[in-house]
């Protein structure tokens, strides 16, 4: 029955999709299976029509929309309660990386970078942005323009993006599926409870048997300098990254103060401090509304 509704909706090619409308109407999101080709194709159709989805991402969930849809990206930041100047990540298959990243401005070849992406479980790479990169995803510092690209060779994700590209899309963009300051979701029911009224659909997968080290946010390296620099340790260890770099002829990985994945207690403390600060600011703002000049004489 669900598949027939999806088929009918896609055949009508409506841009104001009525079967799903949770982002605005507060109806619960549609639950789709990442292993079902019909569901994946419908998710691609929804993304191409401006919708936001919570999507299974090889061990965790992410909140994603079309990379070229800046308003949708803004809605994702609002859902996560993140500042508008925060940049999302670009999810693009390695074979289309050069549409968004200027590899010629790095010390590495396109072949080296794409082989590394396909070799590791998942990896975020900071690269020089190309002129074709979505401007709202580009981080600017002086004359430097960089973009954070992420890829994981995960069959349901690849099939989703291939269908999305057949419909005219280029890439996805978004961020991890969690409220700011909280752990990234890997459990389907937790994603459902947290985002069912915020997103249009949830493309689900079962990660209960995944190793716990894979159920973390993506590890990130920076390839914009002379040597690869470790930016964050997440679901791929420093040792795995080192081995991948060596395999494909990169220089040794350099370390900076590493942003490791925080423990639950650390995240809880950060959330408490941030929430307390927001409460105090609201209190001050409300008190200021009632301030009046003291009567003279």
Tell me what the structure shows:
This protein is an alpha/beta fold and 297 residues long. It has 9 helices and 12 strands. Strands 1, 2, 3, 4, 5, 6, 7, 8, 9, 10, 11 and 12 form a 12-stranded mixed beta sheet that branches. A hairpin with a 6-residue loop joins strand 10 and strand 11 (229-233).
Q: What is the helix fraction of residues, given as a range?
A: 25-40%
**CATH architecture grouping of the largest domain:** Alpha-Beta Complex
Give the integer mean of the pLDDT values.
86
Sheet bearing the most strands, described?
12 strands, mixed
Contiguous uncertain segments of 5+ residues: 13-24
Query: Per CATH, what is the topology of the largest domain?
Result: DHBP synthase
Q: What percentage of the residues does DSSP assign to strands (E)?
A: 15-25%
What is the top-level CATH class of the largest domain?
Alpha Beta
Secondary-structure element series: HHEHEEHEHEEEHEHEEEHEH
For the termini, the CA-CA separation is: 78 Å
Number of strands: 12
Radius of gyration: 21 Å
How many structurally independent domains? 2
Structural class: alpha/beta
CATH superfamily of the largest domain: DHBP synthase
- Helix segment tally: 9
- Overall geometry comes to globular
């Amino acid at each position: 029955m669900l598949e027939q509704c999806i088929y009918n909706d896609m055949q009508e090619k409506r841009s104001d999709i009525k079967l799903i409308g949770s982002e605005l109407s507060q109806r619960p999101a549609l639950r789709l299976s990442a292993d079902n080709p019909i569901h994946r194709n419908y998710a691609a159709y929804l993304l191409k029509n401006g919708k936001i989805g919570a999507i299974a991402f090889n061990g965790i969930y992410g909140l994603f929309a079309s990379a070229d849809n800046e308003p949708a990206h803004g809605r994702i930041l609002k859902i996560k309660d993140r500042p508008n100047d925060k940049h999302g990540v670009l999810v693009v298959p390695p074979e289309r990386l050069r549409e968004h990243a200027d590899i010629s401005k790095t010390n590495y070849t396109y072949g080296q970078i794409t082989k590394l992406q396909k070799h590791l479980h998942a990896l975020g790479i900071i690269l020089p942005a190309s002129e074709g990169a979505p401007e709202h995803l580009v981080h600017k510092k002086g004359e430097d323009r960089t973009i954070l690209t992420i890829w994981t060779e995960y069959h349901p994700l690849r099939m989703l993006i291939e269908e999305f590209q057949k419909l005219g899309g280029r890439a996805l963009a978004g961020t991890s599926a969690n409220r700011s300051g909280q752990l990234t979701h890997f459990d389907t029911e937790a994603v459902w409870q947290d985002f069912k009224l915020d997103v249009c659909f949830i493309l689900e997968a079962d990660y209960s048997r995944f190793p716990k080290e894979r159920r973390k946010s993506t590890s990130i390296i920076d390839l914009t300098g002379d040597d690869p620099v470790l930016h964050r340790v997440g679901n791929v260890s420093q040792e795995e990254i080192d081995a991948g770099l060596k395999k494909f002829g990169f220089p040794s990985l350099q370390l900076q103060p590493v942003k490791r994945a925080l423990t639950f207690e650390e995240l809880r403390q950060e959330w408490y401090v941030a929430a307390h600060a927001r409460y105090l600011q609201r209190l001050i703002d409300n008190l200021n509304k009632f301030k009046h000049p003291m009567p003279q004489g």
